[in-house]
Design a protein that fits this description.
The protein is globular and about 25 Å long. The relative contact order is 0.20. It has one helix at 45-53, and strands at 3-6, 21-26, 29-34, 40-42. The longest helix is centred in the C-terminal third of the chain and has 9 residues, at 45-53. Helix content is 14%, strand content 29%. Strands 1-2-3-4 form a 4-stranded antiparallel sheet, with no helix packed on it.
Length: 66
């Protein structure tokens, strides 16, 4: 079962609608999806490795819901 949470204040990079982005965590893979236009983005292993190493250029923000 996937966990879904909305990201308050986030804007969709495609349609620029605010508060329409949800974070979906399924099988330890994080992805975002816009409920307005259907835009989707999945975190790649490279993104996760960059975040773990503290690479500030490869990631906008790191969200760890618990």
């Amino acid at each position: 079962m996937a966990k879904r949470r909305f990201i308050a204040g986030a804007k969709c990079p495609e349609c620029e609608q605010q508060d329409s982005i949800q974070l979906i965590i399924e099988n330890n893979v994080e992805r975002i999806e816009c409920v307005s236009c259907g835009y989707k983005q999945t975190q790649t292993n490279r993104d996760a490795e960059g975040a773990a190493k503290g690479d500030k250029e490869s990631i906008i923000g790191l969200f760890k819901p618990e």
